[in-house]
Structures are given as structure tokens and as C-alpha cells.
């Protein structure tokens, strides 16, 4: 599918602020499952945009606004073609008895560790063992744990915030895509399966039965030797496919947050997010398909 995405975030401050610095991770990646053809980022007030790659190789745009301002708009527009990874998922598998080998593979270590959002303790391990039901294959174990999260946790956009941790989600078993991703990360890592957080978008068109389809979305990828990184969406209990638009990865939400920053001033802020995804037809026309708000709060001060 070829998709056009417009993601606008607007901050309004109760009094003028200054020295506003932000990092933006909003450009869809280009990899074997998708190709980003165009990306444009603008801010109001205008600013000089600079770019770098972070530790996880995400593209990060950052900008600084020194003068007083009462509002800030950050708007990203992109166009991407998605194909999904169905071919790589066919026959995916690796013996759980050999999963410890992942600790010796470069690039896996960070995705086996606890993080501030994803704590690992004996309670998480016991839950993972219960959810995996003694699976001898690692991919089967991941699918079983994803099914457990999908069944046992309720989708509730009012239950959590962007700062909610895995431990807090486990208490009430309610949350949104960010929380479900953190839970599955914890279950996988406690079993020795490398797992990383993915942020992006979900396009569903006219299809029904999806959760998280009116927001920026989150899912996970697990690493299996011989298969590399395989995507799975616990919110919808299915592998991520051509409906998923990948933007950034990390150990947890903090590494892949779409927008985060700080400003100088004593003001409070209000935030509004507009998201529109339009499918581009073969004839060159387009039809609106998803429009809504974000399931994440932007981190600011």
C-alpha cells in the first residue's frame, strides 16, 4: 500500500516560553518491509532543523527556538509504500532450548535487559512461563504470550499515561498499545528472547476489529537467529504487516518517542495532535482512511 501521512502536534502555552528544544522521530524507515519516498518536517515558529542517527539508528530531527513564543506547531508529512514481512514469517522458529545463544549475538544484549519502563522480576518471569505454556519453539512462545496479552488486558485509553510502567500496567491489566508493547517486551525478555519496542502508525482503511487504529501505534519485534527481527502487534494479536508503518525502534517508549523536548518558562501547556493517513490509489487519487488523536503524551516540561 502507498500511504500519505500528516502528523501535526500543536502546543499552546499559558504564557510566553523560550529556549524550546525538541527531538523528533517521525520519519518512517526504509527497509525490507517498507519504503519512505518523501518526508517533510516544518515548525512554527520556524527553526533550523538538524539531523542525526541515534544509538538505535533512528533518524532524529532536532531544533531549537530561542525567542519568546506562545505556541509551537510541529508538522510532519511523509509518503511510504508498505509490503509487510509475510515471507519472513513463514516457517519462523527457533528452539527455546538454544535461546541463550542470543546473548552472544551482537545487537541483542540491550534488548534483553530491564529498562525504566520494562522492569524484569520473578513475577514477570512466572507470568511469561504461564503465558507461553511450555512452548518448545521460541516463535510459538512469542505468539502464545501475545495472545495472553490480547486476552487478559483491556484496551482503555484513560487507564494509563505515557509514563506508565510495566509494573503499573500489570496491576490493573488495562492500557493502550504502548502498554501492551511494554508488557510483551517484559514477557519475552524474561524468557531470554530479545525484544525491542517499535513506534509507528496503523492504517486499517475500512476493515473492522482493529484496536489502536485512531492513533500513533506501538508494537514489538523479536530477534530469532536465522530470521532476524520479526514484528508482532500484541494490541491486535497479529504479526505487523502492510497495515503497519514503522518509524522508530528502541528498548522501550523512551527511546522511540515521536516528539520530546523542554522549554524555559513557568507556563503550563496544552497539546493537540492531528493524524491523517491517506491511501494513494493507483490512478493517483487518494482517499482519507484514518484520522484521530495520539495514544501517547508528548514529554515536555
**CATH topology value of the largest domain:** C8orf32 fold
Distance between the termini: 38 Å
The gross shape turns out to be globular
DSSP helix count? 6
What is the CATH architecture annotation of the largest domain? Roll
Task: Please tell me the overall pLDDT.
Answer: 90
- Quaternary: single chain
- By DSSP, the count of extended strands is 14
Largest sheet: 8 strands, antiparallel
Classification by helices and strands: alpha+beta
Q: Please bin the fraction of helical residues.
A: 10-25%
Which spans of ≥5 residues are poorly predicted at pLDDT below 50? 287-301
Proportion of strand residues: 35-45%
Describe the structure.
A hairpin with a 5-residue loop joins strand 3 and strand 4. The radius of gyration is 19 Å and the shape is globular. Helix 2 crosses helix 5 and helix 3 runs antiparallel to helix 5. The two termini are 38 Å apart. The strands form three sheets. Strands 1, 2, 3, 4, 5, 12, 13 and 14 form an eight-stranded antiparallel β-sheet that branches. Helix content is 18%, strand content 39%. It folds into two domains: 2-83 and 257-292, Immunoglobulin-like (Sandwich); 86-255, C8orf32 fold (Roll), CATH 3.10.620. The chain has 301 residues and is an alpha+beta fold.
Summarize the structure in short.
The chain contains six helices and 14 strands.
Descriptors:
301 residues; alpha+beta; Immunoglobulin-like; C8orf32 fold; 2 domains; 8-stranded antiparallel beta sheet; 4-stranded antiparallel beta sheet; 6 helices; 18% helix; disordered C terminus
